[in-house]
Amino acid sequence: MFHIQNRIVTGFFAVTLLTAATTCVAERVDVIKLRLGAGNVGTGKNKSELCQGCHGETGVSLDDMVPNLAGQYSRYIAKELRDFQSGARTHQIMSALALTINDAELIDIATFFASQKKMQGNGPEGNPVGKKIFLKGDVPRKIPPCETCHGVNGKGRAPNISTFPVIGGQHKGYLRAQLINWRSGERLNSPGNIMSQIAENLTDAEIDALADYLSGL
Ligand code: HEC
Ligand code: HEC
């Protein structure tokens, strides 16, 4: 497991060096293309009416426990839906709903939500504990910096990696619940179990602090 983790992280450092100059400016065309994936925005908008009932018309939900999908990577959205379909990830509502969507619909729906203005918090409350772990991790305790994978302000690891979801500006209650689910083993669908390994080492207070910090970004 650590082998996988190290390999991933080494890859990121190379990416960081290559892209350091571009991470803070407006998204480039190739980055947007990667985020959107191969579907059709207009078709996806129509086909996602059911989803909009909970996730919001533009992918910004009103419920703290329903994740925002606005500006999320389409590939990640599709992967999670397929995980709900296969049972790799389970949730009382989403597992049943996912079964009603076919593959073609899924690609369009994912592209529609990905095309919306990226989720945004109300400004960083600057939770110092959360901020420190996000930027620096706690390496002796085997907690890597979240930013390494989730990108600047948790907005994604552009330009060429869509495996790592946008988490900056996500709802606090949802973030907290997911970190608890990774830690307890209730959610087990991250590649190489990377998130399970990381969350295992987080305390309750750290999970609260991270959710607080990330939701503001
Ligand atoms: C009745 C409300 C409801 C409806 C309708 C609904 N969802 Fe969800 N969705 C949820 C909830 C609640 C979660 C959080 C699941 C969890 O806690 O693991 C979720 C999670 C997700 C996730 C995971 C997001 C992430 O960040 O990991 C995706 C993707 C998703 N839904 C897509 C859809 C799509 C596509 C549709 C339409 C086919 C849809 N949902 C319809 C309530 C809903
Ligand atoms: C080595 C890479 C890596 C690092 C470091 C990392 N993550 Fe993740 N994280 C991932 C991947 C990959 C996923 C997507 C899992 C999946 O496919 O379902 C993920 C998913 C998540 C999710 C679920 C998002 C959602 O919408 O459901 C949360 C929350 C999260 N990470 C928080 C964190 C926090 C907090 C840290 C730092 C303590 C962190 N991550 C560090 C790779 C990483």
Distance between the termini: 30 Å
Q: Count of helical segments?
A: 12
Chain-averaged pLDDT: 88
Morphology call: globular
The percentage helix is: 40-55%
Strand content: under 5%
| CATH superfamily grouping of the largest domain | Cytochrome c-like domain
CATH architecture of the largest domain: Orthogonal Bundle
Classification by helices and strands: mainly alpha
Give the total of domains: 2
Order of helices and strands: HHHHHHHHHHHH
* CATH T-level fold name of the largest domain: Cytochrome Bc1 Complex, Chain D, domain 2
What radius of gyration results from the CA coordinates? Answer: 17 Å
Q: How many runs of DSSP E, i.e. beta strands?
A: 0
Q: Class of the largest domain, according to the CATH hierarchy?
A: Mainly Alpha
Low-confidence region ranges: 1-24
Major sheet description: none
Give an account of the 3D structure:
By secondary structure, the protein is an all-alpha fold. It folds into two domains: 2-28 and 121-216, Orthogonal Bundle (Cytochrome Bc1 Complex, Chain D, domain 2), CATH 1.10.760.10; 37-115, Cytochrome Bc1 Complex, Chain D, domain 2 (Orthogonal Bundle), CATH 1.10.760.10. Helix content is 55%, strand content 0%. The chain contains twelve helices and no strands. The chain has helices at residues 2-19, 29-36, 41-47, 49-55, 74-86, 92-98, 103-115, 128-136, 146-150, 172-184, 194-199, 204-216. α3 (41-47) crosses α7, α8 (128-136) crosses α12 (204-216) and α10 packs antiparallel against α12 (204-216). The radius of gyration is 17 Å and the shape is globular. Mean pLDDT is 88; it is low at 1-24. The protein binds heme C (2 copies). One heme C binds at residues 5, 8-9, 67, 79-80, 133, 143-144, 146, 148-150, 163-165, 167, 175, 178-179, 189-191, 194-195, 198, 210.
